Amino acid sequence: MTGLVRAEWRKLLSTAAAWWLAAGAVALTAVSTAGTILANGREGGGPGGGGAQALARVLDSPAGVRNVIASAGAGDLFVLLLGVLALTSEYRHATITQSFLTTPQRGRLVAAKLAALGVVGLAVSVLDCIVNLAMALPWLGTRHLHTAVVTGDTGVVLATVLVGTTLYALLGVGVGALVRNQVAAVVISLAWLLVLDGLLIGLVPAAGRWTPGGAAASLHRNLAPTAHFLPAWGGGLLLVAYALAFAGAGTRLVLRRDVT
Amino acid sequence: MTTAVVEHATKYFGTRFGRVLAVDDLSFEVGEGRVTGFLGPNGAGKTTTMRMMLGLVTPTSGSTAIDGRPYHHLASPLRQVGAVLEASGFHPGRSAAEHLGVVVEAAGLAAPRVGEVLELVGLADAAGRKVRGFSMGMRQRLALATALLGQPRLLMLDEPANGLDPEGMRWLRALLRTFADQGGSVLISSHVLAEVAQVADEVVIIVQGRLVAQTSLSALTDRAGLKVRVRTPQAEALRDALAGGGIHAELAGPDVVVATGASLEQVGPLAFAAQVVIYEMGAERSNLEEVFLQLTGEAVAPGPGGGGGGEPRS
Question: pLDDT tens across B66-79, in order?
Fold first, then answer.
């Protein structure tokens, strides 16, 4: 089984798309972290006014610091796409035939993909967290906020980022197993998470929090539950349920489908 | 002993237009240490049958086995079977060595095998090149290298001639002959008998998913009767002499006589006795193709129950 997982890593890492998506995840995290710091500053300072004092006031609040740190989870969409690649790339280039010839017990192959992508998702999210902290700490530090960051729930927020992003990778593997066509799988993932979930969360928060995107947002951003989001543990469990459901349904389909 | 068995395998494919019968109660065996040609016109169900044997397509009913077990129960499939399939691909961004490395890793094979098989198929110089730039012939060689990774005892090749030039096909035939002479078994499919006639010991012929014949190549030749073509300036004299010897012969041109149902050993002495000058004399190989066409044609023509033997591809 470890050989199978290593083979999956080699498959992934020997393609340019995987490196671009990983780089994209880190870049998105960097942009999102910077954006959150600036946005918090603007909200706190009000239009035209503000400056360092006002910025510091908002960032100083536990919620403000939490939002900045939670931006480390912004790369999760790219990590999900990495997961989508795991199977769709095989169907697209017809390498799935050789993979099944090598590992005719297809459940083992999907399990190896889930394990490999879980580790890749975790690795990318660790990078995301490092980039986030590398940007956030000095930035906040200039405003004498070291203590707030270190003593707040930073550790817990970072843990939710690691868990959430890793689950997104597994969710992606499931989506790829269900929708073999690569372009379709990518478009569906983006449309669902960016548009559908975004609209629901924005317009009908009561329903939106039950979507995968809502679950991830609940997990990352909301340690103190509000009306709009599930508690973090609830969001986490919901995301686990989504990942299990998609991976399970996808695996069932992969097991049954003829490869012609 | 046999290495691969197909037993009453039937496969229906569900399509938008209803169920299509691709393989119809097909049974045959691949003998050990032999090259078995798997023949039939396009759409006869050859690819579907091979994919069932390799666990890629699930039979609607019936079964297939390699060394007595279904493919997905083989302990180490690549060490038992090597397959070169038509619709099997490569990631264009991976190099030949990377492609083989992934398979070696997943199958738990020894890493040095990568270099060995690349050497074997003549791709050692292209090991580090991305498959994107490979010609059809190079891809076929890489597919064959992949099949040979596990040093299997059985090779299955689906229409390997499609990507190979005549020189490449000759090279492949030599490789398969050596493989079989060392005790390996080969199942090689083709829609052209001539492609496998030179290397096959045995042929399995299917039409519309049904078995038409499993027989040795020599038996196939006997089945149609032998044919001897003789070029001589005394064509009519030879024809009469052969007729006198009880051999049916016809003029196929002003100086060509074709004797049917006779061997070279029968025609030669009669020509000598009649003191006929001979420029050229040979047994006709082309009649194998005629037998093949005759067999496949017969099978198509009556078609009771008619339902097509289509071979849908995605």
Answer: 999 999 999 899 99
Question: C-alpha angle with apex A198: A193 to A204, nearest 5 degrees?
Answer: 130
Q: What residues contact A21, with CB distance under 8 A and at least 6 apart?
A: A78, A79, A81, A82, A85
Nearest-CA distance from A47 to chain B in Å? 51
Give this complex's ipTM: 0.84
In sign, the C-alpha dihedral spanning B80, B148, A260, A187 is: positive
- Which of A3, A94, A104 comes nearest B88 by C-beta? A94
Q: Answer yes or no: do B89 and A97 touch at CB < 8 A.
A: yes
Sign, CA torsion B281/B286/B287/B288: positive
Question: How confident is the model over A42-98, as pLDDT tens digits?
Answer: 544 444 444 555 555 566 666 777 788 888 888 889 999 999 999 999 999 999 999
Nearest CA in chain A to B93: A15
Q: What is the number of residues in chain B?
A: 314
Chain B nearest-CA distance from A248, in A, is: 20
Residue contact A101–B54, C-beta within 8 A: yes
Contact B124, B169 (CB under 8 A): no
pTM: 0.81
